[in-house]
TrEMBL record:
EC number(s) on file: 3.1.3.2
SUBUNIT field: Homodimer.
Family: Belongs to the metallophosphoesterase superfamily. Purple acid phosphatase family.
Domain Purple acid phosphatase N-terminal intervals: 172-276
A Pfam family the protein falls into: Metallophos
CDD domains to which the protein is assigned, alphabetical: MPP_PAPs
Localization, UniProt: Secreted
Known catalytic reactions: a phosphate monoester + H2O = an alcohol + phosphate
GO molecular function, one term: acid phosphatase activity
Entry GO CC: extracellular region
Protein name: Purple acid phosphatase
Signal peptide annotation: 1-19
Needed cofactors: Fe cation
Originating species: Gossypium raimondii (Peruvian cotton)
Length: 542
């Protein structure tokens, strides 16, 4: 008997209509930071404590910010800035003719309204806020603003605070390598290769540990395609390291920790983590796969009005962490962070998923909020990536593609063969990706791997989402025209998509007709019209 679980979670903002396109407005985009004016008040103050974070090796700390404003108002807010020091000399002119420099040219990494925890703030002018900070390779300062988000007026600046080692190696994320018995470890640090040598120390639990070297990548501001990623949203991403752990024995628990060998001979270590290696292809055992899309990130301290942007993000993350003992591999099929050009959010996302990604392979796909930007080579000319045009996603995470800029790949996990497509590049018949998809589907040995899975971010199959129904085709335009021939020819078992922020499933369909009218006690498929059908679960539409 073949045993497997496939757990499917589609999360994120549950707004309908065009929510699947935009996902709401990135909260940091609401701040008109370039228009900040300075009105430092001698009676206004803001301070943060503790000053030194991570004394016991923590990479996350709660801090308290106390502030006083002699002229308080309901729209006052506190921004968290990192690096701590504002440097107007590095800002491009707001007015080219007058060569006028803005006082602040980088958005904060998060913010809260001043009255969040004290309803009497508008009367007393005194309050405090709690923030959760993660180690992001630089110090932090806190700024008190009046004037709201659209017309910020800087009233007071706090003392800087910092983690004891801002450069520490953090937030490991695992991914399958190019073969079933290879695991990759990717992480972020502040160490360039001229400062320290990155590596992973690893081995089977209880055995002698070995060391494998890591490569180092980063990206620069001029790699961004447009604003805000190239302007107010830019923040140095640090250095991203990847090590390849090869020739793993199937089904074994491996221990690992990340190291940076400094040139004075000392080593900076991460915490110790573990993972279970993949089963041999075709192995008949319980194999538990979680597939979801469009999760985004949120703030545990309530910053950035997170409940209005990606309310399901923390719920989903926490449920995955609780269920981690029952999960073998995760696929996050596009729209990872919804950073939309605010690069600081990538650190916060990798910190959020670290308990998951450091323990099981965290495989990703490309979505519109990672890749799309006009005239950048994406299939769609929308500005959904906020000028990132795929660069952060391609650098921050490993995936076993032949070319990182072509976000399609295959991977094997036991009884499963996965073909991951890139809906943000041309997939139509005759394209390079179409050739890859056919080769991927054709290459599987169905005797060893009976489960052939296709996945992409946008719905290249069928969806009853209202935006698609307005188009009359119940699909991404041109989505299934050529692909359905391949799915039929190679007998794909299941296809998973994200993008539409709802849960739905379709009947087996080929060329807009139901291909299988069998009924079971749980599922009935009925033709709704020539172009669509409804699935019923226990007689309720789903």
């Amino acid at each position: 008997m073949v045993w497997f679980w496939v757990l499917v979670l589609f999360t994120a903002n549950l707004k309908l209509g065009l929510a699947h396109i935009h996902g709401g407005e990135q909260p940091l985009a609401k701040i008109n930071i370039l228009q900040t004016t300075v009105a430092l008040h001698e009676s206004a103050s803001i301070s943060a404590e503790p000053v030194l974070l991570g004394l016991k090796g923590e990479d996350t700390e709660w801090i308290t910010v106390n502030f006083v404003n002699p002229k308080p108002s309901l729209d006052d807010w506190v921004g968290v800035f990192s690096p701590a020091k504002f440097d107007p000399s590095a800002c491009p002119p707001v007015n080219e003719r007058k060569k006028q420099l803005p006082y602040i040219c980088s958005a904060p990494i998060k913010y809260k309204y001043a009255n969040e925890s004290c309803s009497s703030y508008a009367k007393t002018g005194t309050a405090s806020l709690r923030f959760q900070l993660i180690n992001q390779r630089a110090d932090f300062s806190f700024a008190l603003f009046s004037g709201g988000l659209s017309d910020p007026i800087l009233v007071a600046i706090s003392n800087p605070i910092s983690f004891t080692n801002p450069k520490a190696p953090l937030y490991p994320r695992l991914a399958q390598g190019k073969s079933w018995n290879e695991m990759t470890v990717t992480w972020t640090s502040g160490y360039d290769i001229d400062e320290a040598v990155p590596f992973v120390e690893w081995g089977r639990k209880g055995d002698l540990q070995v060391r494998s070297p890591a490569g180092t990548l980063t990206f620069k501001q001029n790699s961004m395609c447009g604003s805000p990623a190239s302007t107010v949203g830019w923040r140095d991403p640090g250095f991203i390291h990847t090590s390849f752990l090869k020739d793993l024995w199937p089904n074994f628990v491996y221990m690992y920790r990340i190291g940076h060998l400094l040139y004075n001979g000392s080593v900076v270590w991460s915490k110790t983590y573990s993972f279970k290696s993949s089963p041999y292809p075709g192995q008949n055992s319980l194999q538990r796969v979680v597939i979801f899309g469009d999760m985004g990130k949120a703030e545990r301290d309530g910053s950035n009005e997170y409940s209005d942007y990606q309310p399901g993000s923390l719920n989903t993350t926490d449920q995955l962490i609780r269920d981690l003992d029952n999960i073998d591999i995760v696929f996050h099929i596009g729209d990872l962070t919804y950073s939309n050009g605010y690069i600081s959010q990538w650190d916060q996302f990798t910190a959020q998923v670290e308990p998951i990604a450091s323990t099981v392979p965290y495989m990703i796909a490309s979505g519109n909020h990672e890749r799309d930007w006009p005239n950048s080579g994406s299939f769609y000319d929308t500005p959904d990536s906020g000028g990132e045009c795929g660069v952060p996603a391609e650098t921050m995470f490993y995936y076993p593609a032949e070319n990182k800029a072509k976000f399609w790949y295959s991977t094997d996990y036991g009884l499963f063969h996965f073909c991951i497509a890139d809906s943000e590049h041309d997939w139509r018949e005759g394209s390079e990706q179409y050739g890859f998809i056919e080769q991927c589907l054709a290459s599987v040995d169905r005797h060893r791997q009976p489960w052939l899975i296709f996945s992409a971010h946008r719905v290249l199959g069928y969806s009853s989402n209202d935006w698609y129904s307005q188009e009359g085709a119940y699909e991404e335009p041109m989505g299934r025209d050529g692909l359905q021939k391949l799915w039929q020819k190679y007998k794909v078992d299941i296809a998973f998509y994200g993008h539409v922020h709802n849960y739905e499933r379709s009947c087996p369909i080929y060329q807009v007709r139901i291909a299988n009218t069998e009924r079971s006690s749980n599922l009935q498929c009925q033709t709704k019209s020539r172009d669509s059908c409804i699935c019923y679960h226990n007689s309720y539409p789903v």
